[in-house]
Sequence to fold (390 residues):
Amino acid sequence: MRTQVAIIGAGPSGLLLGQLLTRAGIDNVIVERHTPAYVLGRIRAGVLEQGAVAMLDEAGAGARLHAEGLVHGGIEIAWGGRRHRVDLSALTGGHHVVVYGQTEVTKDLMEARRASGARSVYEAEDASVHGFDGDRPTVRYRHAGTTHELECDYIAGCDGFHGVCRQSVPASAIRNFERVYPFGWLGLLSDTPPVADELIYVLHERGFALCSMRSRTRSRYYLQCSLAEHVEQWPDERFWTELKARLDPATAAGLVTGASLEKSIAPLRSFVAEPLRFGRLFLAGDAGHIVPPTGAKGLNLAASDVRYLFDGLVEHYRHGRSGGLDAYSERALRRIWKAERFSWWMTMLLHRFPDHGPFGERIQQAELDYLFSSKAAQAALAENYVGLPY
Ligand code: APR
Ligand code: PHB
Fold:
């Protein structure tokens, strides 16, 4: 089999890139390890920057998002028994974010791909990438017991943090930057109305909490937890009791609880690989970087990587110029590092750090106090939260 661009991974990065390429007349094949149902079963983030929304529109996958997504012009930060609103729109000249689950984004992109007739191979085992340092790269995988080889011009490594693409690059050609945080997030999804109209990020003595949502009838809540804990130790009742303990009394009183649809613990990590291009192999999305979820940037960075990579590929195939592809790694990394900085800062601002000590706690309190007393500080948060320009 032969194609122009072989895409490894059918997460948001791979599906978005594939859809844009198909619409631009550039042939591509997606090779994914799991089934579509498995990919859709992973509950992840839910906040989209306007740039990401525009790309989903460009990919022909934005209709349901516009009908069902919730436009948010602000977020709240609860601290010291009070809720403080950060007016994202007023502070950014009218920008906003859209709350719409990554699962729904993925579903819409899968549907658009199915309708386009572009080729996808799900349940591809043992995918491996070869020859990307030369002119004729290939992807090998097994499917239904048979080994296949896919010849291509370029390979897009959209296979997430644990994927095969980054791991196929010689160690001497890549540099990794990493920070692992000493806690995780315990998430719970429930068919209950959200406790507030906007997201509430909470810092409490007992730890961080986040009140988020997927729709007007479905909520997503998170609690900072120890990495030694297991979900089995968190029956729903205990989760709700702990969440209420971290909310101010008025908000806690308004919380509607219910049975969980999903519950999981995720570690928090910052990670960047440099560079993101190795000959004819490009890394995009979680394959190249991870942010802690506090800044809601994971999915949005996947979209901006795809923006730069797609533009580079179009320039190459339409005009025979390599400038965009040559600049991909540098352009993507400049935006990635700013989102890494913001996500790290939000994480430092809003969590209890076991090793911070009294000095660290006072600095954190001063940072929050400064934020709520300074329009300039709030504007810096707001412009990063709604998303820096591409
Ligand atoms: N072969 C084929 N497919 C693979 C392989 C492999 N060896 N390894 C991983 N994959 C697939 C995974 O099964 C997954 O479906 O690649 C896909 C990667 O998807 P994501 O992990 O969702 O990564 P990405 O598309 O970059 O999306 C980034 O997802 O993790 C969140 O916070 C992150 O929101 C961000 C978004
Ligand atoms: C979510 O709804 O899952 C969510 C929202 C905002 C974040 C992180 C996760 O910062």
Q: What stands out?
A: Residues 186 and 370 are 29 Å apart (CA to CA). The chain is about 40% helix and 30% strand. The pocket of P-hydroxybenzoic acid (ligand 2) is lined by residues 45-47, 199, 210, 212, 220, 293-294, 296 (CB under 6 Å).
